[in-house]
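User: Could you write out the 3D structure of this protein bound to calcium ion? I've included everything you need below.
Assistant: Certainly. Input first, then the structure.
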Amino acid sequence: MQSAELSVAREAALKGGEIVRRYFHEGVEIRTKESFNLVSDADVESEHVIADSIRRAFPGHAVLGEEAHRDDVTSEHLWIVDPLDGTNNFAHKIPHFAVSIAYWRHGKPECGVIYQPMTGDWFTAVRGQGAEKNDQPLRVDATVGLNESLIGVGFYYDRGSVMEATLAAMGDLFRTHIHGIRRFGAATLDLCAVATGQFGAFFEYELSPWDWAAGLLIVEEAGGRVTTCLGRPVPIERTSILATNGAIHDQVLDVVSARFPVQNA
Ligand code: IPD
Ligand code: CA
Ligand code: CA
């Protein structure tokens, strides 16, 4: 798997990951951005170093980052960065979080990198070249039916209708006799879990582009399917996400679309 953007994304993710790992070990003050949404110097410094690396390699490319970069998402060359996905885990000393970097061109994903600094795992994809975990090919498990699936879920910071809709959909899914539901706390890695075949599906009713911009390509290149929770193509904006092994997409879509939070329709 090769592309100039992939090399830059890997190098930038490594630098961001080093910062995040160091702060995890040393400890860092956690602040509240808005209700229930946490941030720390680890998030901010990681994004700074990543954006610097991208801009040095590709001056003129746009960067959309969670903490401090808000370039135009309609730019031809767009980099989408989550400098630390899973901040809540990070804050509670749970080593399950990642750095996510995607390169989109003309509104389509071209390359994606998700780096898990505490395990050293790399998930990568280049459009048309497949997806890999640690340089080994990745494939969803499309042989798994809904009643044999583990399903990943995420909650946005909202404690209102989005949360209630998610809880209702989880109940409905349990009643379809799936193997179980998991809430691991890092959407980027939840998408990777679909790509590796661990999850048959993952859904969340509200996510930002940095949460899924790399993972969407990794799932698709691993043979899976990604839409909104209403079955539509994913727009580059805050949106719902349903990612599956493909085989159970329509069945999970029936459940999650029926519980779709009204305010998000
Ligand atoms: C969050 C995580 C979480 C998801 C939230 C995201 P952050 O990202 O991906 O799993 O449920 O909706 O906001 O804030 O840790 O980068
Ligand atoms: Ca995130
Ligand atoms: Ca983040």
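The helical segments are 4-26, 41-57, 87-91, 161-174, 187-196, 209-221, 249-258.
User: Perfect, thank you.
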